[in-house]
Amino acid sequence: MSAYSPYLAAFTSRFLLMMQYRSAALASFLTQCWFGLVRVMVLAAFYKGAAQSDSTLPLSFAQAVTYTWLAQGLLALLPWAADPDIAAAMRTGAVGHDRLRPVDTYNLWYACTAGRMIARILPRLLLMVLAAGVVLPLIGKEELAWAPPSGTAAAMLFALSLTVAVALSCAVVMLINITVVSTLNERGVNTLVVPVVFILSGALLPLPFYPDMARLALFIQPLAGVLDIPSRIYSGALTGPMAWIGISLQVLWTFTLVVAGKKWLSYGMQRLEVQGG
């Protein structure tokens, strides 16, 4: 049996389990559509005012709109909460079962987290593409619609960047999971992480819109690789060498956080006191 078989099985079973929650995906999609439309209309007003004042903006209106729809479609990608199953296992003591399995605990939890995340992203993203990329142009709202990639190269780089973004997001979620190992409760860390992730990933406001003095720091920090970098590559705001620099940062942060997470989890498990019974 391949050494990767247990992790592939964990990924597949979690993916198939999460794909059964169709009503939740539909409800989430409708909510994201509503807030997406609100945010796009706010952008339209903002750009209209900027045009009247002759201000220069880092993204065109079409790029900002597409960035916004991507952020809504990829909302489930944001690493702003611990894996609920792992958090429940810590509260009940079921984590002892994972410790008895002849597999690496970090890799097992990472595979489960990836399966859950991808299953939550796919239906929401496909529905968002249909609604914002197909329906809006059909009803005559092209200016508010999700535009296609800026070119073939952008589409290919976006696919690569999005793949790494999923790996990076899972690595961040694993750090949150490991915090739960230390605290035995996910509520505190989830509360603290949500606003940080929402702001630094670009989900609240595209990162290029922040002041010039903060843009470099925002670009190189790890959460930019979750949403901002893929979105800017897709829309054509990040091209050529800068696109490759962005992807390289994603890879670097993923590797760094995985290595740090493995060491931290090993340290935490050595001191873990299993509760429940």
Taken from the alpha-carbon principal axes, the silhouette is globular
Q: In terms of per-residue confidence, which ranges show pLDDT below 50 for 5 or more consecutive residues?
A: none
| Span between termini | 33 Å
Number of extended strands: 0
Assembly status: single chain
Detailed description of the structure:
With about 280 residues, the chain is mainly alpha-helical. It has one domain. It contains eleven helices and no strands. Helix 3 crosses helix 6 and helix 3 packs across helix 10. The longest helix has about 35 residues. It is globular. The two termini are about 35 Å apart. The model has no long low-confidence stretch (mean pLDDT about 90).
Attribute tags:
277 residues, mainly alpha, 73% helix, globular
Which helices and strands, and how do they pair?
Blueprint: H1 5-18, H2 22-52, H3 61-73, H4 84-92, H5 95-100, H6 105-138, H7 152-183, H8 187-200, H9 212-220, H10 228-235, H11 240-270
